[in-house]
Structures are given as C-alpha cells and as structure tokens.
Specification:
The structure is a homodimer. By secondary structure, chain A is α/β, with parallel strands linked by helices. Chain A has one domain: Class I glutamine amidotransferase (GATase) domain (Rossmann fold, 3-Layer(aba) Sandwich). In chain A, the strands form 2 sheets. The first copy, chain A, has a 7-stranded mixed β-sheet with strand order 3-2-4-5-1-8-9, sandwiched between helices. A 4-stranded mixed β-sheet of chain A has the order 6-7-10-11. Chains A and B meet through helix 7 of A and helix 7 of B.
Chain lengths: 240, 240
C-alpha cells in the first residue's frame, strides 16, 4: 500500500455544542475513504483507555469503520505494522508522547505513514505528536517524556485549540500568542501553525490545505504572524 | 545566618490594573524586613535577562533593597553561596528550570534556603520551581529541561494563576481543574495548591499561611478539592 503521505490533523475533537468528532466527520469519511475498513486507534492520551476506545469505536462505526485499540493488541509495534490506518486521539500530550515512547511505536508509526502511505489522523494531542515536537502543546506536563521530539510527519509545529486573546479578561497569564513568541525566542525553532477550534490541516504528499470553518494563524520566527482562511494552500510549510 | 525555612510564594507578578509586584509589595517588605540589604534576582524565566533585572531592580529599590542579577555574576553558584536573599521571577517555567540546571544552582539554592535560612521569594514560574516539580505549571514547554523535578523547598506542588472555569466560554480546551485532575490520575502525585492571582503562600519554618486577597483551592489525589480563605493556616501541607 505504498503511496504518498496522507495526514488529517484536527485542532480539536469536540466543537462547542456538538458531539465527539461531529464537526469533522465528513472530512474523516473523505479522508479514510472506502478502501480503509479498520482504523488503529491510539488512546494513550487519556487515562481510561478502554472507555476512550469505546467512544472512538462508537463514532467511527457510524462512519463505517471498525476500530482496534492499540492497547488491546498483545504487541503495539505489531499492531502498527499491520494497521490500515491510524488515529491518535486527544487528551494530555505529555502522557501521550511518553506512552508512545514507552511502547516503542514512535519510529514505526513514522515509517508506516511516510514510507507505506498509511493514512494518519490526529486530533488535538494526536495532532501535536504528529509534528516535529510537542514544544507548542497547551497541556500540563503531568509526566516526563524521554524527549519532546515527536513523530515528525511534518517539518513544523502546530498549536491546536489556538485561542485569540480575550480583551475582557482580567487574567494575567500569557496569551497564546505570547507563549508562541517565547518559543520563537529560542534558536532554530520552526514555524508554528495555530489551528483554531474548528480547523484542520489536510496533507496529501507535498500538498497541504487548511480545512474546516475557522482561520489559522501562522507564526514564523522573526516575522509577523499571518492569518489564513479555510481552503488556503499551505504546501509551502512542507518544504521548509 | 542559619534559621528556619522562609518562603514567600506569589501566584503572579502583576495583578490586573496594577504595576509589577504592586499587589504584594507590603508582603515583600515585611518578608525581607530590615536586615536584608541585597536580593539575588534570578531572571532565567525571560529571554532578556538584563531588561528583566532592571524591572526587578527598579521595583525593589522603591522598597529599599538592592538587586543583583545572578547572570551578572561570573559564577552563579558563588552568587547563590553569598546571597542574603533570593528572588526568582516569573516567565516560562521550562526555560527557568532548564537554566537553573544548566547553571548548576538547583541544589545550592535548596541548601541555602533549607539549611542556611536564606529567605526565598518566588513569583509565578519562580513559585513553580520552588516546589517538588514543575508538573503543574501552565506554561508552554518551549525547551526540554533535564528533569521536571524542581528545587523542592516544599513537599507539594503549586498551580499559580489558578483559574476558575468560565461558564460563558465556548473554548473546548481542558479547564484548569481538569488538568490537575489528569495529573492526579498518575500514581503517587502530591497535593496541588491552586493559587489564584492575588494570593500567595508564606512559609516560616513549619508554618504555612495563605496571604493576599483571593482564595486558594487545594487538590488532593482521590479527594474532593477544598477552598481556603486568605489567612488560612495551611501548615498541614508541610508535613505530608
């Protein structure tokens, strides 16, 4: 099944007022298509892996796909080796990345997606770990992973759930933009694509397209940030 | 100058509508008192250490204290060894902790505070690094420290800038309480004191008192969270 890299990187699993993955279900159906029958689900980002897998399974069955939880397999690496498609769900990014390393599947997922063309869907934390590193996650560092380097399916970073400043807030914590600016004060840091809730990035080979209903904001070290509308061609991000 | 441990752990450097450290300046004066003449300031949490030290110096001079920036000293460990008092300012907690390790001052600060009774003030990130670990920071993991273990001046963790859920928000990222709950899903995790902006913890030997103008919320693994009013005696946190 060798083919070009195919990724669907979703900002958020649930959009306000909707159910789990409702807002992107048409994108999911279009992305996995009719050839995929079973999706390997990685529930490592949440504590209760069985309950999380049931949530994903129930949703994906309504779209015509069977779901296998990677934690249900006797050998996680073997499960990745025979996967038709992979979906890594959201939750805590640190817990997720640590579990990916603990189960030794980071490089095998990378190989399957980049060499074998296995379609990869990520949501929230599952989108973070698909990039160069988890340096731009919003999550609390509840566990210590052996590295912040991630699967590296794209050569930039993503900030999911990207949030504009609230002008009425009295809270003095840093805005999201300030946090990403702090990241870019560090040397040799890559672009960060801020995906607002409701947006997602579709990557097919060397073509990247912004999908969904909200705009995205791109942060490049040493340059002003830029807004992109849904439908924008962001393929240039793949050639850095 | 041996004496009991003395800590002033402030949630936030700036309160909405006020200037830098304005909201806690009386607490600072009372904490350092008249015996302290010079405060060793650690500006590692922000990128521009000179500018940050100037901000701290200007403020502390109005309170009658001279400030030395640790990065101005030829030998940071030596600067800690001869410090009369230490203040670690806020910014990015990951950058701060990594710099503390890079400069090999973590254990020396611990020794000076716990063995020599050198007064320690922290604000925001400087409060995070004074606890067991930085596992409950709110900051973006822009750099990878060699450990999340921190200076360990108290046997619990703190979440600075603690924030109540906003019932009007449509944003679907986890609330602060959900994040701390995820931390407590991990085994053997300590109490987390959520310090709202405007609050601070004063530790004198084995006595801990909540100061400031806002309540704090205490999260204990496996138990309901509890609210504490300013003035509350939280000494029990020191004996876990």
């Amino acid at each position: 099944m060798a083919g070009p890299r195919r990724l669907l990187l979703v900002s958020n699993s649930t959009l306000h007022g909707g159910g789990y993955l409702d807002h992107c279900q048409q994108n999911i159906s279009h992305f996995f298509g009719k050839d995929v029958k079973r999706v390997l689900f990685v529930p490592y980002a949440l504590h209760d892996r069985d309950a999380y897998t049931k949530t994903a399974r129930d949703k994906f069955q309504t779209l015509g796909y069977e779901v296998d939880g990677i934690h249900e397999a006797p050998d996680p690496v073997g499960a990745v080796r025979k996967a038709e498609a992979i979906f890594i769900g959201g939750g805590n990014t640190f817990r997720l990345l640590k579990s990916l390393y603990d189960n030794k599947v980071v490089s095998e997922i990378r190989r399957r997606v980049l060499e074998d063309g296995v379609p990869y869907m990520g949501s929230s934390a599952g989108t973070n770990v698909s990039t160069i590193s988890i340096n731009t996650t919003n999550d609390m560092p509840i566990v210590y992973p052996p590295s912040f380097s991630a699967i590296g399916l794209v050569p930039f970073n993503i900030n999911p759930h990207y949030l504009d400043p609230n002008p009425n807030s009295r809270h003095m914590g840093e805005t999201r933009e300030q946090r990403i600016t702090q990241y870019h004060e560090e040397p040799d840091t890559p672009c960060v694509l801020g995906l607002r809730e409701g947006s997602m990035l579709l990557v097919e080979g060397n073509k990247a397209t912004l999908l969904g209903t909200t705009k995205a904001r791109l942060f490049t070290r040493g340059k002003p940030s830029v807004e992109y509308d849904p439908g924008s061609d962001l393929s240039f991000l793949l050639t850095h």
